[in-house]
Amino acid sequence: MIDLLRDGLTIVLLLGGAFFFAAGTIGLLRFPDVYSRLHALTKADNVGLGLTVLAFLIQADSVMQGLKLVLVWALAVTASATIANLFANLAHRQGVREWRKPEDRP
Asked: Given a cut of 90, is residue 12 above it in pLDDT?
């Protein structure tokens, strides 16, 4: 019985992670400028990976496996935020402007 609950929760978390990965990909394709694309992709991927890691933690056989999963997640979150910041700064330095609605433009 406990295995069934554990497997069910794992499936729900994996589906949630897949949803956030898909939402981030859609945001990457649909948003109008580099800044909103970076924001959508970074946030959605971090949450998607977090849910996926939680699903794997439930199935982990040992504490060491769980710690490795959490370490991978922490490194990915840190790298994702750092790279997004670098890309945004580079775009800003190159003069890429943020998108605005036509009625909001000067």
From this structure: yes
